[in-house]
Structures are given as structure tokens and as C-alpha cells.
Write a structure and sequence with these properties.
Layout (H helix, E strand, L loop, with lengths): L1 E5 L7 E6 L4 E6 L3 E6 L9 E4 L4 E7 L3 E6 L3 E6 L4 E8 L4 E7 L4 E6 L3 E6 L8 E6 L4 E7 L4 E6 L4 E5 L6 E6 L30 E2 L5 E5 L4 E6 L2 E10 L4 E6 L4 E6 L2 E6 L5 E6 L8 E7 L2 E6 L4 E5 L3 E2 L5 E2 L5 H15 L4 H6 L4 H6 L3 H18 L7 H8 L25 H5 L21 E8 L3 E8 L6 E7 L8 E5 L5 E4 L3 E6 L4 E6 L7 E5 L8 E6 L8 E6 L3 E6 L4 E6 L3 E6 L4 E9 L2 E8 L5 E8 L9 E6 L5 E5 L4 E6 L8 E7 H5 L12 E8 L2 E7 L15 E4 L13 H20 L9 H28 L3 H8 L5 H13 L3 H19 L1
Helix pairs in contact: 8-9, 9-10, 9-11, 10-12, 11-12
Keywords: Nucleus, Repeat, WD repeat
GO molecular function: chromatin binding
InterPro entries: WD40/YVTN_repeat-like_dom_sf, WD40_repeat_dom_sf, WDHD1/CFT4_beta-prop_2nd, WDHD1/CFT4_hel
């Protein structure tokens, strides 16, 4: 290990931060200056200097975009990395701020300090309109850490507690508190922070640190240790590491090396094995102290209280497989370990991988670093074996899909996966090369946030959502988190993914996951104590892959799981993984199932031509509708939302026109019809009349009664939900029959009450209500439609009479279906002295009485 000094500043407190995106070292000094060093530049060029506020207390940077600083004056300053200039003070507190961190792909900042508040700043709006909210804390905030993989923030408090907040939604939610764990720290510095003398007791680590996969939280303790907690079980300490006296700072590298910095000693541990791999003494000039740590690959930077920065080069050497090679006295042990691991590798087989549990049990069995690495290598070998017949030919694929066409970049690219061309003798493959695995509510991968990680929502519906974090580091695994909009329903949970799942479907009881290329499906219950979990591999043909999976939403254990493939194979399983049927159809685009056992399926007929079918699973897989034309056109995305309403009617929102369609009269053969009941874009943008909402977008989740449950994406150039996830709202249905919004909505009320009344009546007559729906409430709803129907027609009738449009008035009267409403129309006619019209309406009443008598 080589130790160097960087004399960037003559004095003052120097905080270090390594920006991996820029490959630059950022040093912020308390005397009001930042210096940025280009570490890839071999020449001794001068660093970039930026003037900042004095008395810095923390430093954070995000990709190649921004730097944030906090100060004892209670100011939060933002630095623009594209121009290397200050953007000024973003937020001001009455008392000192102590820490800040970027979250949600850099869209928001968390900060806090002596005011007992956690401040959330939304950076997506214009500078003058940054949304600032806060959460009251039980004590002063001393530090904040962020878990990218799990969208969690750990907040260290002055009283020794650590609070865990979920920050995936706009409003952070407290999920757990670890009490009396960190050293109690009370800041007395209100201006210049003198760590060397007056404020030396503040030179004490209270910061927490998350592992790169989001699984573990590292916490400093009062007895100078770093304890490790598994986020799935906060009651138990997984492992512990000793410091050397008072711990000043500690950092975990992406490769799994833990550095613990004490006042004059640096210790390096292998995080997985717990072995000490290096220990060294160091010192600064002028009796100064170390301040904080930053990793760069296998090297460390240490800030100080006298302006200097230490650079420890090659602190950890790697063994070529992503593991740490032990140094100094431990070299012999390291060689012995390598020999043992090599012997174990020879006994590996793919069956071991497929039998591994997917969640926390698996994590606890895999604490040994080499075991995880071996599993990863096995997984990669399995993938290569299974994809041996897949030939990737991007040029040919572009020609086949006609990528110069404005509609060619459609559904097959909507989830962000690499496109592959499958060469096979089967003609079905040719027609399905555009298909990409799709789950309702899924989004493409979004690389924003961390260069070594990528993430996407796997699925989203009324119940909740699941997202995956893809860890690109060698030997690392992915993480899946399942969350719920109603947190009283279930607790959020996560597990490790070793199968590269890219498909999902969730109901109130559990989640179903699928790996499209491997033909692998997995089910687990939301209930942690339940043993209802299983996995199985499907017998895919050469070139075949899973395109969609779904599960019904019955509250009992009688749910059915359906899996569809690119060759049109449709397999049915019960909730316990027993295959109960298999059918063959056209290549399958997507599947969605109702709570009562109806399967809605979209198939690809040919390029840009789609059809749908409805299968009643409970009636011996009877086709209720078969291969009917689907009103879809290639777009990005092809489908924004697909679901059943509580009346058991299929609903879809296409990406082309952003209109919610509901399938009407589908229980009658050859009579199904799609009815548009809401143009989402028009409604949320107020028909273009509100400039502040012109960029708003809608992400549908489900239809409940007369309201679309959805997410509104405000001022977002991306059409997909990101992080943080906005809270769901409800949009009232409004049939798109007018060119612009009109205060006179009688005509829309009439048509909506007629349309929705037919839907409700059809569902009741066919006993197709969802199991969660109260029939009495539905009957009351039907009565309300009837009342609205009459009222809206009478209003239209009265307006026509005022304009003396008697022909129009009589045509409206003929639409009225009740004697009471016709009597009201007759009296309106008489009052306005349209006697002939009143006579005609009287004849309508007589005919209505005769019909009712018959």
C-alpha cells in the first residue's frame, strides 16, 4: 500500500467525495472552496476550483450533474457540475444543517440538522418552484444514508436511534426504528467547527452505510464496532467489525471491502468473510485528525481537519474473480482459501442453482463470498447453455421490423430489453420476433442514479408494485422489492434474485415472477411466515421464450396461474404449482386474469395486427370470445395499462391514444364492443387549457366504479413512472364526446350513465361481480345511473326548448325511459306553451304504459 498526501488546502476541514461517474475526486473545504481533481489525467493539471459557502458540514455529489453542501449557517448550496458554478442557496434552515444526500435518481434531496426535521426537496421543478416538505423527527438529525436498491433512507438521530424510511413514494414512510444503537452526539458547533480542540467530541461517526445490493445496513455502535443488520430482520445483528478506538468514519466499497477509520488507525476488512485484510497507522501534519473516507476502486481518500487529504493506493488487491486478496500477515491464509474454493467449484452443477431459495433464507445460507461468486458463475453458464440456439443479428432484425417506420419502435422495445432475433424452422417464430416479455404496469430499465445499477418496475396495479434493481458488478445479484399502496394490507418486503426475473404478476396473496429466456417461474406468498412458495422450469422449445404471466385475484387459495410464450403455448397452474392444463394459440403478447377466473389474452396475428380472446377457466377453459380484432397500433409503449374492473370487464389503455377502453357485451358471442370512457391526457391537462399541466402524463392502475385509479406524472419528460413514485389519485370517468371541456356536461352525463348502466346490468344479469364487491352497493349504483340518465335528458330537453329546437327536443324525449321523467318533460313543454310537443310526449307516455303492461 502506497500513502500519498494531497495538499489541496493550507488549513480548514476538508471533506472528500469520489464521483465514480466523472472519475473525479471532490474536496470541499470549510474555508469556502471546492476543488475537483481529474484522477484519469496523468498530467499534473490544476484542479477545477469553485467558490462556495463557508463552514461546510457535509458534501454529496450525483453523477455528472450536481454537488450539494450543507453548512452550520443552515444553508444548503447546490453546485452545477456541467458549468462548475454555484446555483446558490437552495434551502435555508434557522439552525445548522448537518447532512444531505441525493435520492430517487437525483430527483430529490434529503437534508436535516439541529431543527429536528427531515427536509425533502424536489429538484424536478424549476429552481424557483422547488417543492419542499418536511417530516418532524423525535430529535436532532446527525446523519443520513441512502439505499439505492431498496429506496430506503436511514436517519441517524442525536438520541442514538436510527430510523428507516421508505422513500420510494413522494411522502417518506417510517418503516422501522433501531433504538439506542449509535453513539449519542449533540452538536454544539454553530459557526466554525473546530474538530481539533473545542468540538473534538463531534469527530465521532454516527453515519450508517448500506451495502451496494441494498441488503445490509452497517451501523456504528457506542462500543466502537460496526454492526451489520439484514433489512429483512432488524432484530438480529448479522455480523460485527471492530474499530480501533473511537470510529471517525467507515465505508463499504462496491467490491466488498470495509474500511474503518479511527483517529490514527485504518482497518480494512473483507465484508463477507469478516477477515481483517489490512491495518495501518497514519498521521497528519500539525496534529490534525482524519475527517471522512471515500473509496475509488481499491484505493482510499481520507479528508482531514487541517486541509490535507491522504491517498492510500492499492489498499486491497483483487484475486481476479471479484474477491479481496489478503495482504501482509494474511497472505498464506488467502492462498489456502483459494485452494479450497477451487476444489468446491469442481462440484458445482445447475441443479443446485435451481433449488436455491429466492429470498432471505437464501441470503443467510450464502454469507460466504465465494459461494455467491460460484452461484453467479453457474447462473451465467446456465444462461449460455440455454441461449445457445439464440442468434443475435441486429442488422437483420432492423430490416425485418422496418425500423425506419415511425411506428416500428413499438411494444417490442417498451421494456428496454436487448432485442434478439430467433432463427428457427418454426413459422410461428417469424411472426413473433417483435414480441418482448411484458407485464401490466411494467417500465423499461432506467440507468439514472448509479452507473453500476439499473432498475425498472416489473409490474404495477391497484394493489401495489414490484421493482427490480439490476446490479452490474461482477459476482453481484439483483434485488426485488414488493410494495403496497395500502401499507396496512402487507409490509413491504424484498428478496435476492438470482434468476434475472423480468416478468411479474401480483395479487392480494402473493407474487408470481418469471424469467422469460430461462423459462423459469416462481411464486411466493406476501405472508413471510407462509411456506406457500415454489419454483419450476418450463420445457421451452428452441427459440421459445415466456412473454407474459398472470395470476387470478381470489382471496382464497384457489387462484390460477397462467403462463404464455412467444410460440403461443398457454400453460395453467394452480396456486401450488401443479400444471392443470395446456393450450396452443397464436403468439401471446400479454395476459391478465380476473378474480372470478376469466383470462383476457392478447395475441399477435402479424406485424401491427393484434387479436384478443377471453377464456373462462372455471368452465373447462371455454372460449367466450375468440381471436377478435384488437384496437391496438404499434407504439411506445403498445399498452400503458390492462386490467379487469370490479364488474369483471376487461379494460385497456393503449399507448397510441391514451384512452381508457372497456369491453362491453363480451359475454355474448360475436357481440363484444370496445367503448372509450376516458381520454386520460385530455382530462389531466384540462383539455390543453392549463399551461402548467401541459406536460402531465397519466399512468393507469385500475378502474374502480366510475373512477380510474392512476398515477399522475407531473412535469416529467419520461412517460414512465420513476422514483419517487407519486401517490395514486382517482380520475372521474368522462366519455370523450366533446372537442373541449364544457361546463354544460348534460350530454356526457347522459351517455356515461347509459354506458355504465349497461355494464353494471350486464354484470349483474350474468352473475359476474367480483368477489370483493357488495351486490347491494352495485344495485344502488345502478339506481344512481338511472336517476342521472333521466336528469341529464331532462336538462338537454329543457335547453332545446329554450332554443325553440322542437325537433331536437322531441328526439331527446324519445330517449327517456320512465313515465316520471316523461311527465316532467310534458310539463316543461306546457309551461313554455309548446302544446303540440306536449301532445306528442303524452303519446310517448301512453306507449310506455302499454309496454309495461305487456
Amino acid at each position: 500500500m502506497v500513502q500519498k498526501k494531497i495538499s489541496a488546502f493550507p488549513d480548514g476541514n476538508s471533506f472528500v467525495d469520489y464521483n465514480s461517474t466523472l472519475s473525479k475526486l471532490i474536496i470541499a473545504n470549510s474555508e469556502g472552496l471546492i476543488k475537483i481533481f481529474n484522477l484519469d489525467d496523468d498530467s499534473e493539471s490544476e484542479p477545477v476550483s469553485i467558490d462556495t459557502l463557508n463552514n461546510v458540514t457535509s458534501l454529496a455529489s450525483y453523477e455528472n450533474k450536481q454537488i450539494a453542501l450543507t453548512t452550520t449557517e443552515g444553508k444548503l448550496e447546490l453546485i452545477d457540475l456541467s458549468t462548475n458554478t454555484s446555483k446558490g442557496v437552495l434551502f435555508r434552515s434557522e439552525l445548522p444543517l448537518r447532512d444531505t444526500v441525493f435520492i430517487n435518481q437525483g430527483n430529490r434531496l434529503l437534508c436535516g440538522g439541529d431543527e429536528n426535521k427531515l427536509i425533502i426537496i424536489d429538484l424536478q421543478n424549476s429552481e424557483s418552484e422547488n417543492k419542499i416538505t418536511n417530516i418532524t423527527l423525535p430529535d436532532q438529525l446527525v446523519n443520513i444514508s441512502y439505499n439505492f436498491a431498496g429506496e430506503l433512507s436511514s436517519v441517524s438521530l442525536s438520541n442514538g436511534d436510527v430510523q428507516i424510511y421508505s422513500v420510494v413514494n413522494e411522502q417518506p414512510n417510517l418503516t422501522h426504528t433501531i433504538e439506542n444503537i449509535i453513539p449519542r452526539k449533540i452538536h454544539t458547533s454553530m459557526d466554525v467547527v473546530d474538530f481539533n480542540e473545542e468540538h473534538n467530541d463531534e469527530l465521532l461517526s454516527t453515519n450508517t452505510e448500506w451495502s451496494s445490493n441494498g441488503q445490509y445496513l452497517l451501523v456504528p455502535t457506542v462500543d466502537n464496532k460496526v454492526q451489520v443488520y439484514d433489512r429483512s430482520d432488524w432484530d438480529n445483528v448479522v455480523k460485527s467489525f471492530n474499530g480501533d478506538g473511537r470510529i471517525v468514519d467507515f465505508k463499504l466499497s462496491s467490491s466488498g471491502s470495509l474500511a474503518i477509520l479511527s483517529l490514527n488507525v485504518l482497518k480494512i476488512y473483507n465484508f463477507e468473510s469478516g477477515k481483517l485484510i489490512h491495518e495501518d497507522d497514519f498521521e497528519f501534519d500539525e496534529d490534525a485528525y482524519p475527517l471522512n473516507l471515500a473509496w475509488k476502486d481499491n484505493s482510499l481518500f481520507v479528508g482531514s481537519t487541517n486541509g490535507e487529504t491522504l491517498h492510500f493506493e492499492n489498499v486491497v488487491q483483487t484475486d481476479g474473480r471479484g474477491g479481496d486478496k489478503l495482504l501482509s500477515l494474511f497472505v498464506s491464509d488467502a492462498e489456502d482459501d483459494d485452494d479450497e474454493n477451487d476444489d468446491e467449484d469442481e462440484g458445482n452443477n445447475t441443479d443446485d442453482l435451481l433449488r436455491d431459495a429466492d429470498d432471505n433464507d437464501q441470503d443467510k445460507q450464502a454469507n460466504d463470498e465465494e459461494r455467491i461468486a460460484r452461484r453467479k458463475r453457474t447462473q451465467e453458464n446456465l444462461k449460455l447453455h440455454e441461449e445457445d440456439s439464440l442468434i443475435i443479428d441486429e442488422d437483420d432484425l432492423d430490416d425485418d421490423l422496418g425500423l425506419n417506420s415511425p411506428v416500428s419502435n413499438g411494444f417490442h422495445r417498451s421494456n428496454g430489453h436487448q432485442r434478439k432475433k430467433f432463427k428457427s424452422s418454426s413459422p410461428a417464430v417469424v411472426s413473433s420476433i417483435k414480441l418482448k416479455p411484458y407485464s401490466p404496469g411494467s417500465t423499461p430499465f432506467d440507468s439514472k442514479g448509479a452507473s453500476s445499477m439499473d432498475r425498472r418496475y416489473l409490474t404495477m396495479n391497484n394493489i401495489g408494485y414490484a421493482w427490480i434493481v439490476q446490479n452490474k458488478d461482477t459476482g453481484s445479484s439483483n434485488s426485488i422489492t414488493v410494495s403496497f399502496f395500502d401499507r396496512s394490507l402487507h409490509n413491504e418486503y424484498h428478496f435476492t434474485d438470482y434468476q434475472n426475473f423480468d416478468l411479474a404478476s401480483m395479487n392480494q396473496r402473493g407474487i408470481l415472477l418469471g424469467s422469460s429466456s430461462k423459462g423459469f417461474i416462481f411464486y411466493r406468498s406476501h405472508n413471510e411466515s407462509s411456506n406457500d412458495r415454489w419454483e419450476r422450469k418450463l420445457p421451452l422449445l428452441s427459440g421459445e421464450y415466456i412473454t407474459s404471466i398472470c395470476i387470478t385475484d381470489n382471496q382464497s387459495a384457489n387462484n390460477t396461474i397462467v403462463v404464455g410464450t412467444s410460440l403461443g403455448y398457454l400453460r395453467f397452474f394452480n396456486q401450488f404449482g401443479v400444471c392443470i392444463n395446456i393450450l396452443k394459440t397464436l403468439p401471446i403478447v400479454t395476459l391478465v386474469a380476473s378474480s372470478t377466473g376469466n383470462l383476457f389474452m392478447i395475441n399477435q396475428v402479424t406485424a401491427n395486427v393484434y387479436s384478443y380472446s377471453i377464456i373462462d377457466i372455471n368452465q373447462d377453459y371455454k372460449y367466450i370470445q375468440y381471436n377478435a380484432v384488437m384496437p391496438l397500433k404499434d407504439n411506445i409503449p403498445l399498452i400503458k395499462g390492462i386490467f379487469f374492473n370490479e364488474l369483471n370487464d376487461p379494460c385497456i389503455v393503449g399507448g397510441e391514444d391514451d384512452t381508457l377502453l372497456v369491453l362491453h357485451s363480451w359475454r355474448e358471442p360475436n357481440n363484444a364492443k370496445w367503448v372509450p370512457i376516458l381520454n386520460c391526457h385530455q382530462v389531466i391537462t384540462e383539455y390543453g387549457s392549463n399551461d402548467s399541466k401541459k406536460n402531465w402524463k397519466c399512468w393507469p392502475l385500475g378502474l374502480i366504479n366510475d373512477k380510474l385509479n392512476c398515477l399522475i406524472l407531473k412535469n416529467n419528460n419520461n412517460q414512465y413512472p420513476g422514483f419517487p413514485l407519486p401517490l395514486p389519485i382517482e380520475l372521474d370517468l368522462e366519455l370523450p364526446i366533446r372537442a373541449k371541456h364544457d361546463e354544460d356536461e348534460a350530454e356526457e352525463n347522459f351517455l356515461r350513465s347509459l354506458t355504465m348502466g349497461k355494464l353494471v346490468s350486464d354484470s349483474i344479469n350474468n352473475d359476474e361481480l367480483s368477489v370483493n364487491v357488495d351486490e347491494d352497493e352495485v344495485m344502488e349504483r345502478l339506481n344512481q345511473y338511472s336517476i342521472l340518465f333521466d336528469k341529464s335528458l331532462l336538462k338537454l330537453f329543457g335547453e332545446a326548448c329554450k332554443e325553440s329546437k322542437l325537433g331536437k327536443a322531441f328526439s331527446i324525449a324519445r330517449l327517456i325511459k320512465t313515465d316520471k321523467a316523461l311527465l316532467a318533460a310534458s310539463r316543461i313543454s306546457e309551461r313554455m306553451e309548446f302544446l303540440n310537443l306536449a301532445t306528442k310526449i303524452g303519446e310517448l307516455r301512453e306507449r310506455l304504459v302499454d309496454i309495461n303492461d305487456d
